[in-house]
Amino acid sequence: MSRIEAAPLLEGRVAIVTGGASGIGRATCEALCAAGAAVVVADLNGEGAERVASTLRDEGRSAAGFAADMGEEDSITAMVAFAVDHFGGLDILHNNAADSDPALMARDLVVGEMDAEVWDRTMRVNLRGPMLGCKHAIPPMLKRGGGAIVNTSSASGLTGDFARSAYAASKAGLRSLTESVAAQYGKQGIRANAIAPGVIATPALEANVPANQVEVYVDNTLTPRLGRAEDIAAAVVFLASDAASFITGQLISVDGGLLAHHPAMAEIRKRLPGA
């Protein structure tokens, strides 16, 4: 019987999840713990991070909360040091945090109207933050013989859109960052992959996307439902585990087929006989 069959996928591993207090991050913390990992729940909302960690501990899991600002390198350095000190090392980093403040997103407009401050703030958290997360996570991973990095990109980073130009560019940049880390550290046992979620039913979606636009996404998703945070969490667990030991440098879309079809398909389907 293989180790994967005999024990939880991530037994004995230590993970950090940024943006872990809610949404995809919280679901991923829960899934990683269920798979046997010890998890640092890191979030700008330190109280929220500790609430998630406390709930996991009440369930018999190994978890600790940490207030981390992914826009500040000192905070990222402290986050990684906390994981190493608290749990003895680091094996998994899920770079999930992004600046989804509705006030910021509302100012993320077309390129011809882009405020440089909006661009810079978006890049600082969404792209610079994950780069710094990798920078500081890689050394302790190397001390343990390797590790797995999973970055949360977005379907928005794979196509053009009417607005949110900075957000899209930041998420597209994560693909290149992922490939660079995979190329530079693969021979030393570190794998790096990215996940591009489609439309996921989270508080951030409700805060930033009007209901009538969500209906359009529903029409263009090939599955009978929109995504759930647990769908992304399951993909993170897989990519972080030995089951994905030969997968690195990849961007995997977890989007219910949102980008897999002809752009006109949803409207054509409405016009089919019997529709």
Give the key terms.
single chain; alpha/beta; Rossmann fold
Q: SSE layout and pairings?
A:
Layout lengths: L2 H4 L7 E5 L4 H12 L3 E6 L2 H13 L4 E5 L5 H15 L4 E4 L6 H5 L9 H28 L3 E6 L12 H21 L4 E8 L5 H6 L2 H10 L8 H12 L10 E4 L10 H6 L5
Parallel strand pairs: 1-2, 1-4, 2-3, 4-5, 5-6, 6-7
Helix pairs in contact: 2-10, 4-6, 6-7
Taking all residues together, what is the mean pLDDT? Answer: 94
Determine the number of helices (DSSP H or I, runs of at least 4 residues): 11
Question: Taking strands numbered 1, 2, ... along the chain, how are they ordered across the largest sheet?
Answer: 3-2-1-4-5-6-7
Task: Please provide the count of β strands.
Answer: 7
Give the CATH architecture.
Answer: 3-Layer(aba) Sandwich
How many separate domains?
Answer: 1
**Estimated helix fraction:** 40-55%
Flag low-confidence runs: 1-6
Q: Using the CA coordinates, give the radius of gyration.
A: 19 Å
Distance between the termini: 50 Å
Report the order of strands and helices: HEHEHEHEHHEHEHHHEH
Shape: globular
**The level-1 CATH class:** Alpha Beta
Largest sheet: 7 strands, parallel
Q: What does this entry look like structurally?
A:
With about 280 residues, the chain is of the alpha/beta class. The chain has a single domain (about 5-260, about 265-270), classed as NAD(P)-binding Rossmann-like Domain (Rossmann fold), CATH 3.40.50.720. It has eleven helices and seven strands. The chain has a seven-stranded parallel β-sheet with strand order 3-2-1-4-5-6-7, sandwiched between helices. Helix 2 (about 25-35) packs across helix 10, helix 4 packs parallel to helix 6 and helix 6 packs parallel to helix 7. The N and C termini lie far apart (about 50 Å).
